Give the backbone structure.
Amino acid sequence: MLKLENLSERVNQKSLLSSINLEIAAGEIVALCGANGVGKSKIVSAIAGIIHPVSGRILLAGKPLGKKTKSQIGFMFQHAEFMDNVKVKEMLCLFQSFYINPYSFNELVHLGLLQELLLKKTHELSSGEQKRLSFALSMVGRPLVLIADEPTAGMDEEMRNHFYQQVQIAVDEGLAVLLITHSREEREVLAHRIVLLKEGVVQ
């Protein structure tokens, strides 16, 4: 479903990513692991289009990743950033408007366990509450692929278990997941396969 082919990135002649080859099938969760600074976030940034690798390509369902196909990838970043002074329910409705066939409002509320947060403004949310909203927003467009960077950091036990359950349901329906994590629990509960990244190279 998602394929990285010979992805390389350099800054000032320093190699940050070196010929990364990685493929994630529909219905598969791949955990990408490694120490801080080895290039995990660079891979996420490349998929998101924040950086442009010097070589290689990214394919989604066999097609080069572009503006239209990128909308089929959901991103749950490690540090969520939302518009200030906007209510949670307004964020959900806004993101729904971006897609032709989004999840319903009630489905999104359930995904993030957001029932008690709907009238809260985004800048009032705790870090764990931000993660709950981020998860719902990452899934709003029924993506083919979910990129989740340290998704359960800051979540309480109830939401963490709920997150695991909802991801498993989506994966059973064909979602492909790239999980960026340091959490042993996340790997043990979710991952079908673990990939180690060391100094910009897949081991």
In short: The chain has a mean pLDDT of 87. Residues 157-172 form the longest helix (16 residues).
